Each structure stands twice: as C-alpha cells, then as structure tokens.
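Priority: medium. Attachment 1 of 2:
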C-alpha cells in the first residue's frame, strides 16, 4: 500500500548506514555538533533562569523551597522541549556540510552512478549557507501561512481542538518532508516551487514518512540521532520515489550554480 510505504524508510536507512561504515562519519559528526550546541544552550538558559527563580523565592519558609524545586522541574522539562524544537529547526542547517556529503554517497549507492560534486570552496560554503537560510525563511513563511488559518478550527464546537491538532500534525509532516527531502534537490539547485512539486510527487508515501519523521525528531535527546537518520531516510525516499535522476535539467541547474560562484 503506497500510503504505508514511507513508514519503513527510517529502518531501511538505519540498516544501510549500519552496513556501510564509510557513512558513519557523516552521521556522527553532526550528532556531536548538535549535542555540544544543544547542551551549551540548555545549560546556559537553565542556569540563568534557575538563578532568577532562586532570587525571586529567596525565603526561609518551607513552601518556598518546595515551590522552587517544582518550578525548576517544570522549567527543565519545558526547556528540553524548546531546545529539541530549536535543534530540529537549525540542526539540519548546522549539519548541512556532512548531510550534503551523506546525500551524495546515498545517491551513488542507490543509483549505482557516481554523483558529480561541485568543488569544495569557502565561496561554495557561504553560498550554500545562504541558500539554507533562505530555505528556512520560506519554510517558516509557508508554515505560518498554513498554521494561522488553522486556528479557526478551534472555534468549531466539540471537534475543533482535535481537528486543529490533526492540522498541526499534517503541517509538521509537511515541514519534515521539506527538510529531509532536500539533499538531492539542493544538489540540483531546485527552486522552492520545484521542491514542493517533488513533495507532491512522493505522495502518499511521503505523508506517512513525514508523520514518522516528525514524531522522531520531536522527542528530546532521541532527535539527536533521529535527525541524521531521517535525513538519510528522506534522501532515499525522494531518490526512489521523487523522480530524482541525472537529467539535462540537472546539468542546467549545476551550470547556473557554478555561474553564481564565479
């Protein structure tokens, strides 16, 4: 069944990575980087807010001590969720140098054809980062344009909140697909409209994959491993089901890209 076909891609990606040691570096490096950034951000914000709570509840009464620890526990939980969300949004950008190489290796493995990579230069890195940030801005705009109208569902009696929650899940799946399908498309320098067209081409398997990926990357700590795994799985799905192949159009995109860098 096509709808369920996307569910097995994370497990296929895990098996392929496990059996291909040369891919491990492209997985472990971004995990390590995101771990360092996540821990530093978490501790920095938590300790700052914890000191403010201590100053606010500087009281000798027993209730003040109990309230302090309760608020500290709630703060720790909420901050973990917040940092997890930030890692999902920016972890792909931080790990993009390794994920792009992972994407190239995966496409070569799946198609049996070597991928022609652009030369590594500082100008290329700067241009790729600019495109990545622009992509994030367009995803944010798309997400807000869909999420804000969905708030009207809350006005529907009885069924409003469940409908709004379902809309949120679908939006999360959409953004996850855009994130994790991006490698082969970015290498071909697709426009945002072309990336949306590729997403439509992968349906309905892309929908089931997006829901699984969104669930995995939403779990604190688990998302450190889930991010590169879903990057690999999404690349595999879009290569196999998104019509990713070497064409004259790809050569045109590559020529335009190289022209920008000159």
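Attachment 2 of 2:
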């Amino acid at each position: 069944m096509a709808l369920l076909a996307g569910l097995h891609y994370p497990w296929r990606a895990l098996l392929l990575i496990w059996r291909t040691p040369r891919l491990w570096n492209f997985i472990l490096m971004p995990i390590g980087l995101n771990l360092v950034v996540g821990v530093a951000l978490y501790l920095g914000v938590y300790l700052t807010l914890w000191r403010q709570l201590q100053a606010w509840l500087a009281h000798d009464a027993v209730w003040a001590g109990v309230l302090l620890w309760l608020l500290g526990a709630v703060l720790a939980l909420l901050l973990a969720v917040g940092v997890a969300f930030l890692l999902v949004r920016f972890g792909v950008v931080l790990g993009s140098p390794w994920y792009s190489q992972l994407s190239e290796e995966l496409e070569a493995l799946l198609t049996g054809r070597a991928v022609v990579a652009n030369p590594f230069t500082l100008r290329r890195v700067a241009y790729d980062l600019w495109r990545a940030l622009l992509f994030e801005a367009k995803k944010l705009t798309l997400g807000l344009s869909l999420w804000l109208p969905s708030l009207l569902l809350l006005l529907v009696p009885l069924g409003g909140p469940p409908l709004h929650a379902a809309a949120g899940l679908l939006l999360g799946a959409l953004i996850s697909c855009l994130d994790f399908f991006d490698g082969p498309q970015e290498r071909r320098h697709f426009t945002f409209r072309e990336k949306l067209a590729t997403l439509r081409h992968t349906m309905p398997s892309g929908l089931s994959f997006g829901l699984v990926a969104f669930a995995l990357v939403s779990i604190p700590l688990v998302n450190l491993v889930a991010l590169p795994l879903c990057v690999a799985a999404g690349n595999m799905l879009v290569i196999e089901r998104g019509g990713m192949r070497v064409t004259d159009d790809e050569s045109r995109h590559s020529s335009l890209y190289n022209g920008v860098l000159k």
